Amino acid sequence: MWIASKGEVDSFQLLITLLGGTLAAASAQVMNCIYDRDIDYEMLRTRARPIPAGRVQPLHALIFAVILGVLSFSLFVVFVNLLSGLLAMSGIVFYMLVYTHLLKRNTPQNIVIGGAAGSIPPLVGWAAVTGDLSWAPWVLFAIIFLWTPPHFWALALMIKEDYAQVNVPMMPVIEGEESTVKQIWVYTLLFIPCTFLLVYPLGVSGVIYGIIAVILGAMFLQKAWQLKQAPLDQDLARSLFKFSILYLMLLCTGMVVDSLPMSHQLIAALGDNLTTLVSLIPLS
Fold this sequence. Notes:
Elements: H1 11-35, H2 37-42, H3 58-80, H4 82-103, H5 110-118, H6 121-130, H7 135-158, H8 160-165, H9 171-174, H10 177-195, H11 207-229, H12 234-259, H13 261-280
Main location: membrane
Protein name: Protoheme IX farnesyltransferase
Subcellular location: Cell membrane
């Protein structure tokens, strides 16, 4: 939203979009907990969730999820625009129908394709500001889409036995650790270059974001490479998983800071000063 508005996002629009997006994500997650209540009960990590623990009945949870979804769509349509509301709802549908129902229990590529659901929020944010979708939000979509496998497979390496126990075919369970970390490395090599497309050729982000993207990208590559050299090292998998969260947060922060008018003024002033200094250098 900050990029689309060139650093001058409307605060009320921002608040409504964040609230609507949160409600949509919550609706999808509640539905997921209903659908996966059988395996959630079997896994120690998820057994304490409200439905498998018996604190909430599935029917009550479904009513709650529908209310959340209706509230989300209503907020978008009334206060923002129809496109952003439809995109938010498409995230719920894709997450539940494609990822949770069709992919999660049937293929080790579940998180790759299913990652599209988690990549929709940038489309929602961009549409909320502009009312349409240009190339920039699709690049943001691609960044998160390609970031998701390294992020989630690092987690899957840590809890491989939990997934094996309930027959969820996550990559480490089916293909093993070595194959998984190779895939992590490949996807890392794919998504890091995508982060620079916002600078060139799209030109929607500038120098500040570019510097942040280079530093964070180098750190991510280093951690992914270390894990590739030691696929069985749980500490390295945990380190990559935790950093992947920090990485995306800082990368997005860089986008926001770079989009601010103050940042544009600072870079312009530095550029003018540099030009002046260069002009003072004698040519002979």
